[in-house]
């Protein structure tokens, strides 16, 4: 990893030498957005979708991005070529930049960072047998932006590990929102539903919404709807389509992976 290159504000720098100034708002206030995508056989997967979301996140936080989408694509291509890793990940970050008073945002001083490192998708038994979720009451700030604020998620990481669950499901006054790093779907009477508002619109979620042959609706729903579902699954870049058979202590339906979940899973993994 130390021999890999990282991109920071126009320069390709060895990973071991990469850094940002302590006055940067990413350090002083945790003010930054990011996106994350996989590179398979040196080919960035669904890059256009991820860059669109990254640019949108930057706009929502008022961050100045001095690179166009086309320029970002070229930076990704050059970084992947320099590191020459067959299967990897890229994390692209835009920070609040240096601030003279450690608080005021300057739209022309943002720091752009790209980190490329080896990454292999692991396929545990949960993909075959179904996984579980634990719930927590939480609503992310600026939920439509992919910010680096993962305080709630990180604080629950030990509880998550102890539970053996795959993810934490966030609820807001009983409204289902999203998981800490995934979107959530449920199936009822052959119809597929996913939350519409106060969420981060995932790239895998977007691909599912474009599938033909399924009735899929974006609509807000409550935890009771999810617990009484015929099928539940979550989606993300790294998890793909992950079937969920248990939420807290409640078994979903018959505790087995459903037909519609399996069908969507197979289409997305093609």
Descriptors:
270 residues; alpha+beta; D-amino Acid Aminotransferase, Chain A, domain 1; D-amino Acid Aminotransferase, Chain A, domain 2; nine-stranded mixed β-sheet; six-stranded antiparallel β-sheet; 15 strands
Protein topology:
Blueprint: E1 5-8, E2 11-14, H1 25-28, E3 32-40, E4 43-44, H2 47-60, H3 69-83, E5 88-95, E6 112-118, H4 126-129, E7 131-137, H5 151-155, H6 157-163, E8 167-172, E9 175-179, E10 183-188, E11 191-194, H7 203-209, E12 215-218, H8 223-227, E13 231-236, E14 240-247, E15 250-251, H9 259-268
Parallel strand pairs: 7-8, 7-14, 11-12
Antiparallel strand pairs: 1-2, 1-6, 3-4, 3-5, 5-6, 8-9, 10-11, 10-13, 13-14, 14-15
Q: What can you see in these coordinates?
A:
It is a single chain. The chain has 270 residues and is an alpha+beta fold. The chain has 2 domains: 5-118, D-amino Acid Aminotransferase, Chain A, domain 1; 126-268, D-amino Acid Aminotransferase, Chain A, domain 2 (Alpha-Beta Barrel), CATH 3.20.10.10. 26% of the residues lie in helices and 30% in strands. It is built from 9 helices and 15 strands. The strands form 2 sheets. Strands 7, 8, 9, 10, 11, 12, 13, 14 and 15 form a 9-stranded mixed β-sheet that branches. Helix 7 links the parallel strand 11 (191-194) and strand 12. The protein is globular and about 55 Å long. It starts with a strand and ends with a helix. The model has no long low-confidence stretch (mean pLDDT 94).
């Amino acid at each position: 990893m130390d021999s890999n290159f990282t991109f920071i504000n126009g320069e390709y720098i060895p990973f071991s030498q990469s850094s940002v100034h302590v006055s940067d708002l990413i350090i002083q206030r945790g003010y930054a957005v990011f996106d994350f995508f996989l590179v398979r056989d040196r080919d960035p997967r669904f890059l256009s979708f991820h860059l669109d979301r990254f640019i949108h996140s930057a706009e929502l936080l008022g961050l100045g991005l001095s690179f166009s989408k086309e320029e970002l694509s070229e930076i990704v291509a050059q970084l992947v070529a320099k590191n020459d890793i067959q299967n990897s990940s890229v994390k692209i970050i835009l920070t609040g930049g240096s601030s003279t008073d450690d608080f005021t945002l300057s739209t022309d001083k943002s720091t752009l960072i790209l980190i490329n490192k080896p990454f292999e998708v692991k396929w545990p038994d949960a993909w075959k047998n179904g996984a579980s979720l634990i719930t927590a009451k939480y609503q992310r700030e600026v939920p439509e932006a992919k910010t680096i604020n993962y305080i709630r998620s990180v604080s629950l990481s030990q509880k998550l590990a102890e539970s053996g669950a795959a993810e934490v499901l966030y609820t807001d006054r009983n409204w289902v929102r999203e998981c800490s790093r995934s979107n959530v779907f449920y199936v009822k009477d052959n119809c597929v539903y996913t939350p519409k508002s106060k969420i981060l619109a995932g790239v895998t979620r977007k691909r599912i919404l474009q599938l033909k042959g399924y009735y899929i609706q974006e609509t807000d729903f409550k935890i009771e709807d999810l617990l009484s579902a015929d099928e539940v699954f979550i989606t993300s870049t790294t998890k793909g389509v992950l079937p969920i058979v248990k939420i807290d202590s409640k078994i979903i339906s018959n505790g087995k992976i459903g037909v519609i979940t399996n069908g969507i899973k197979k289409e997305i993994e093609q």
